[in-house]
Structures are given as C-alpha cells and as structure tokens.
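Re: that backbone. Tokens:
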C-alpha cells in the first residue's frame, strides 16, 4: 500500500495553487485572459492535485511583475509657509491656465475660467493652512481640479446648463492634514474634481482604476469554491 501524501506536499500544492490563482487574476485584469478562459483555468486550479499541474496551468502567462507604484507626497500643514501664502486669484479668459508642481497653497484661492480652461493640480502642492477654500467660477469654460487620494475634499455649488462633478478619493478629514473646500458656480461650463497619483495622466488613471476593478472582481471569483459541474 503506497504511503499517504506527505503533509509538506499538500502545503506546497496549496501555496502553489494560491500563487497560480493570483497570477490568473493579474492576467485577467491585464486583459491577457478572457473571462471564459479565466473561469476555466481557475476551476482547473482548484481541482489540481500536484504542483506540476499548477505550473503547466500558468506556463504560457507572463510572470507577475511588480505593480507600478507612484509615491504620494506627504500631506501636512506647514504653518511656516504662511508668510509666503498670499491669497491668490487666478483667471483664464479666452486662454489656458495651469498651476501644478510644488506650489504654496494659501487658505483662500479664487479661480475663474471665462471662455477658457484652467487646471489646478494639488498633488505636489504645499499647504500653509488647515482649511483651504477654493472659490471656482466658470462661464463657457472648464475647470479641472486634480487632488491626491489622501486629500479630503468637500465640494458644493450650482450649475446652469453646466456640470459640477467631484470624483474625489473619499478621504476622511484628518486634524493633521489639510481639507479642500470647493464652492463652485458653472454656467455653460464644467467643474470637475479628479483623484490621481503623482505623475499619473488622465488615461493612466482610468486604466489603473479599470484594472483595479477587474482585479478585485477576479479575486472574488477565484475565492469562490468551484461549481459542482466543474469538479
């Protein structure tokens, strides 16, 4: 009578199965696998009994690469910057206006776009006050406000034949971090708040969020036990 499978082999198969399923989920999120192929391979991974079977299951897939990370700039209030943080009024009239990089943010900021566009980027900004009030006025133009994920944003306002949209990262207000309060008015124009990582473009942000949603869905599907007809 053959000896039972050593416990160490069972552990090895279990660990390799978890790694293979994670690789399948990553490949599905990166559009390497279709939904049908992903489901089929996950079912085979659950029924595999050897490490060799699991290795063969993912042999044609790219090796898991370290995820692209973009370091967030530490977000804090530096009161020593108050002397340099004068109230600012930025205007765009029949033109384009951009403010980005490590600029100093005052406690009050007014931005207007009239027949023009403006981009205000807070991802690398330095804050001199706990609460920053942004008065945004748009007439026949567009204003894009870009914030890092850890910045709490409160947005309200009114629009007439226009839009005010806030896609903030739902960061919770923290006593040790600044808060951005936006009061907007859009007439025949748009005000939009977007959350992005430093250095991330609009397209990169959309792709990252889409892959994050797919990876989350794939992980949930992979965690489910196989259906009876797949055993």
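Recovered sequence:
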């Amino acid at each position: 009578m053959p000896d039972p499978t050593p416990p160490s082999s069972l552990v090895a198969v279990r660990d390799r199965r978890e790694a293979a399923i994670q690789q399948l989920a990553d490949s599905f999120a990166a559009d390497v696998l279709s939904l049908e192929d992903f489901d089929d391979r996950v079912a085979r991974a659950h029924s595999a009994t050897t490490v060799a079977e699991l290795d063969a299951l993912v042999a044609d897939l790219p090796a898991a690469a370290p995820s692209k990370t973009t370091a967030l700039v530490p977000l804090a209030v530096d009161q020593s910057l108050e002397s340099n943080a004068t109230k600012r009024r930025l205007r765009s009239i029949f033109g384009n206006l951009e403010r980005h990089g490590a600029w100093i943010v005052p406690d009050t900021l007014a931005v207007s776009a009239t027949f023009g566009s403006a981009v205000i980027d807070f991802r690398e900004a330095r804050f001199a006050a706990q609460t920053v009030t942004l008065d945004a006025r748009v007439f026949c133009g567009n204003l894009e406000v870009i914030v890092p994920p850890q910045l709490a944003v409160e947005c309200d306002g009114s629009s007439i034949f226009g839009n005010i949209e806030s896609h903030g990262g739902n960061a919770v207000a923290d006593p040790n971090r600044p808060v951005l309060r936006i009061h907007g008015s859009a007439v025949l124009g748009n005000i939009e708040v977007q959350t992005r990582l430093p250095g991330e473009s609009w397209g990169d942000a959309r792709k990252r969020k889409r892959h994050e949603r797919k990876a989350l869905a794939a992980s949930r599907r992979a965690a489910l036990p196989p259906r009876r007809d797949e055993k």
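Residues 79-199 form one domain. The two ends are 27 Å apart (CA to CA).
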